[in-house]
């Protein structure tokens, strides 16, 4: 305990003693015979008091015989500096485990060695042969006590310490003997031994490392490629190609790469095991919870559970058999790839041969061959019949529930009908109609015309395309005329002589016709436009003026508000509105 902690404990003890004395002072004052000049007269209440009977004398409770016979006294603690139990945990401490600085006068002597002593501290020194440092001596006589802690260094190679908790003898670097409470360590060169309650360690570095603990231990031999450690919850070991890994009751072990085995050790009905032998292409797995088993031996695969068994010889033979007696269904499936497959269960059956497929369920029946296909669904409310699916000749599809029917005799006729649409097609004419939505006609060889709720369209592929949809329209006479119009603008191309692009957002137009160019654009004050007869003349106007040029400015004139300019030999000259005439 540090001096700071001891001083704080003494203060707390004194405060406790003062509190006891103050608590006893009123009783002592009541023993006086009456009031004094410095003490006010104490008023006495008249009548029965709480806790008294009505017949009891009111003055009886304050009689001298009812008061304590002796005054309470405060006992001083035996060790005023001792800290009460639990106080150190509440206030904390800066104690670092080292004894406090020694106190008292210093005594020195110089023969036969230098010695310095102060309080419980002593230093002996014969440089550089011997050094000794001691604490815990008797401050009065300098004799050793049970708390003495002595450490010394001789010839710079031998270190010795003796203390109540720690002993050490070290002949550096060959031999070590160290005691730390009940922990003992012995080292002699590469040999090491440690002992402690319920554990020990033995080392022969770098050949062997072995140790034991209360719930396990370890052993390592690097040259033999062996290592192992074990405990109550887990263990792991490697010895060459052999390994074993345990977590509680779950164990995995093997000899790499020849054999692997695992067992989770569950005893509550959920046990799992596996075995793997890679050189033999063998694998086996068992699960107790679902009573399943899987075994693989080369291409042979066998699986079993309470509901079915599976036996395969990949990739040729595949079989499945149900177990109705143990909760499964009555089923069987056999496949001899690619020649044959047959499977059956209570809900469906499937039979497959090269060029033949037949599938039957409670509500559907499907037959597929290269020359004839027939299928029914929903207890024959829908049916499909095709003759010659490879080269289609006859097609028939009906669905009574939705009122749909289709008939095709290829290549002469196809027709379909439903509550929403109708279709009629021949080699020369076809018609498609979605009731109240659209209608389209096709006439041999490439004429298509139709209408819908938004407009109409007529196409003669690949030359003529005419149509309108809402407020948009197009006209195409390929490859000469292209015209597309919409509320946002219009594009017209008379290839290759005429090009016109208009944008309604700013009323802009760009038009090219032969060697003429016309451009316009809406501005804040009006319309800004220009016309070019390339390469001779150009003229234009704006809300504030107008201009003209000959041969792009060989000669020209421009007026913009109060400013007037002329051009001569492509040089602009201001003649009005800009001061005196000057070349710009």
Can you give a write-up of this model?
With 584 residues, this protein is mainly beta. The protein has a domain at 527-584. Helix content is 6%, strand content 52%. It has two helices and 53 strands. The longest helix has 28 residues, at 3-30. It is flat. The model is unreliable at 1-69 and 580-584 (pLDDT under 50).
Q: What is the strand tally? A: 53
Q: Separation of termini? A: 101 Å
Low-confidence stretches are: 1-69, 580-584
Q: Number of helical segments? A: 2
Which whole number gives the mean pLDDT?
Answer: 86
Radius of gyration: 57 Å
**Morphology:** flat
Percentage of residues in DSSP E strands: over 45%
Fraction of residues in helix:
under 10%
How many strands, which pairing sense, and closed or not: the largest β-sheet?
53 strands, antiparallel
Briefly note the structural class of the backbone. mainly beta
Keywords summarizing the entry:
single chain; 584 residues; mainly beta; 53-stranded antiparallel β-sheet; 53 strands; flat; disordered C terminus
Task: State the gist of this model.
It contains 2 helices and 53 strands. Strand 29 and strand 30 form a beta hairpin. It is flat.
Please write out the topology.
Elements: H1 3-30, H2 87-91, E1 107-109, E2 114-118, E3 121-126, E4 130-135, E5 149-154, E6 158-162, E7 166-171, E8 175-180, E9 183-188, E10 191-196, E11 199-204, E12 208-213, E13 216-221, E14 226-230, E15 234-239, E16 242-247, E17 250-255, E18 259-263, E19 272-277, E20 282-287, E21 292-297, E22 300-304, E23 308-313, E24 317-322, E25 332-336, E26 340-344, E27 348-353, E28 356-361, E29 365-368, E30 372-377, E31 382-387, E32 394-399, E33 404-409, E34 413-417, E35 421-425, E36 429-434, E37 438-443, E38 447-452, E39 455-460, E40 464-469, E41 472-477, E42 481-486, E43 489-494, E44 498-503, E45 508-513, E46 516-522, E47 527-533, E48 537-542, E49 545-550, E50 555-560, E51 563-568, E52 571-576, E53 582-583
Antiparallel strand pairs: 1-2, 2-3, 3-4, 4-5, 5-6, 6-7, 7-8, 8-9, 9-10, 10-11, 11-12, 12-13, 13-14, 14-15, 15-16, 16-17, 17-18, 18-19, 19-20, 20-21, 21-22, 22-23, 23-24, 24-25, 25-26, 26-27, 27-28, 28-29, 29-30, 30-31, 31-32, 32-33, 33-34, 34-35, 35-36, 36-37, 37-38, 38-39, 39-40, 40-41, ...
